[in-house]
Amino acid sequence: MKKNIGILGGTFDPPHLGHLIIANEVMHKLQLDEIHFMPNQEPPHKERVSGTTAKERVAMLERAIAGNDQFFIETLELNRTGPSYTIDTIKILQEMHPNHQYHFIIGADMVEYLPNWYGIDELIHMIDFIGVRRPGYAMKSAYSVTEVSIPQIDISSTVIRSRLKHGDSVKYLLPDRVIEYIKESGLYEA
């Protein structure tokens, strides 16, 4: 059976309400069947510094998406070593599920960065890119990107980690179950 699958990649360190809003808005506005959250191992464009493990990030994602039967976690990139290039991941997914149509969800910052993506000229013919606005970024690209308008909520994992490190509240920025896991596991402490 053919499915339209939205893929939302990222470090999810931690997964926050902004991620969930993006996934939900794109899924409903484009009538996708499912959203697959895909935590990456080593994003080629940035360095991870938080010290959380892949297992901890997946555990937080499981708690964040609990109760939504259209949200799933795809761990393909976590099972590979080295940089995570989207083109390699999509080739594997298309081999595994040849009847699925993949829609890769990116923020406006990544829309602007598309010319720098490894294999972009081939990748653009393999998947549909879905762009969502982020404050401070334009949605300009020489590549085809379907824009989905979502509520503008300026939440970032970087800011959340900083707040947690300083003992500041993250209530209403993260799902309660994620906050509980962070506290129980002692993540992001000073």
Describe this structure in words.
By secondary structure, this protein is α/β, with parallel strands linked by helices. It has helices at residues 17-29, 54-65, 86-96, 108-113, 120-123, 157-165, 176-185, and strands at 4-10, 34-39, 71-73, 101-107, 128-132, 145-148. It has a single domain (4-185), classed as HUPs (Rossmann fold), CATH 3.40.50.620. The protein is 34% helix and 17% strand. The chain has a 6-stranded parallel sheet with strand order 3-2-1-4-5-6. α1 links the parallel β1 and β2. α2 packs antiparallel against α7 (176-185). The longest helix is centred in the N-terminal third of the chain and has 13 residues, at 17-29. The chain is globular and about 45 Å long.
Provide a brief overview of the structure.
The protein is an alpha/beta fold and 190 residues long.
Brief descriptors of the model:
190 residues, alpha/beta, Rossmann fold, 7 helices
Structural class: alpha/beta
Low-pLDDT regions: none
Q: Please indicate the percent range of residues in DSSP E strands (runs of 2 or more).
A: 15-25%
**Count of separate DSSP helical elements:** 7
The major beta sheet can be summarized as:
6 strands, parallel
What pattern of helices and strands is seen along the backbone? EHEHEHEHHEEHH
What's the overall geometry?
Answer: globular
Number of domains: 1
Q: In CATH, what is the homologous superfamily?
A: HUPs
Determine the fraction of residues in helical runs and give it as a percent range.
25-40%
